[in-house]
Write a structure and sequence with these properties.
globular; alpha/beta; two-stranded antiparallel ribbon; 9-stranded parallel sheet
Amino acid sequence: MRTVWLGHSLANILLVPGAMKVLSMPSLKNINTRSLMAKFDPRLVAAWASVVVLAVCVLVLWPSQEATTTNDSTRVVMQIEAAQTTTESEAPNGDAATEGISGGPALSASGALPPAPVEGLQENSTVGLLPRIAADGRRPWQVYARPVPPGATKGARVAILVAGLGVSALTTQTILGKLPPEVTLGFDAQGSFVADGITYARRGGHETLLMLPMEPLDYPQDDPGPETLLSSLDDSSNIERLQRHLAKASGYVGVATLSGTRLISVPDKMEPVLKEVHDRGLMWFETRLAPQAVTGDIAKRLKMPHAVSSRLIDADLDIDPSSVTTALQDLERTAKAEGKAVGMVSNPTPYVLETLNTWLSGLGKKGFVLVPVTAVVSDGSP
């Protein structure tokens, strides 16, 4: 709008007076100016001039706007890399003190998780690199997991998943800088920053999940986007879409969905999807956003590693901001009663992150242990 206003203003300032001046020149006194004015209406001249000036402004300003967007994204990436490089250079020398799950790689001295993909845990395909179970039995969900902190057996375990990352580089940077590394991060498979985001998250010590677009109850009014897994597709088509999402990044421990309230309620459609995920050595995270979901039962039947959300922390945020604190208190009660609890954030707003971070800083004093999601996984065994 500013560009349109600028073009119109320039046309009126520069061109209309000029036209009037020409028409008043002595050499044109004998010309029928009324006829000439009818042919060359100054308002028409101004309108055409506005179009010309607008086109020039677009040609000049549009590339600079694209360059600014690209530069902003590059700047965020550089800031993340600089912060993580500083952390690594300040880390003490020596071997890591904690070991990964089931013999997986340990944390580096700086607290970073090993780079991904790890040799033997990926395979080439027509859609790119896909996760796989290694020939020696190593599974991606174990190797890419964050090690359990020392002393985790001394208190009730609390795990937190913060989803909604990967769409914005700036949001990813903010979250990486605020949350402790034990918090698991969920990246949108359709986000433009998913691959780089997972890489930087692992450098910061966070294990990650890939959030898949699946059919919601009110589809297509609510459309998660292209390559959504749908109940109307045959199994092979859904598997193809799943694989295209899996190939977008490396280093995640498993998958989940924030959108698939319909698909996760259809057993014959979800079982082939979960079997593919399981056969590739990944875990499933059950968000419990759909009361009728069948994915938990399928995971148990497949003896598939899975974790279940105990509470959606920001479920009632729009109604009552204090509900975030109430949800966190509910998590504490669940952890005390069951020995573990898993909280999930679906929309990491600044308020939610600040409230969550304050609560996390006091967990240890209450006798709880903050752990990654993989530390509360069940494999479906009785």
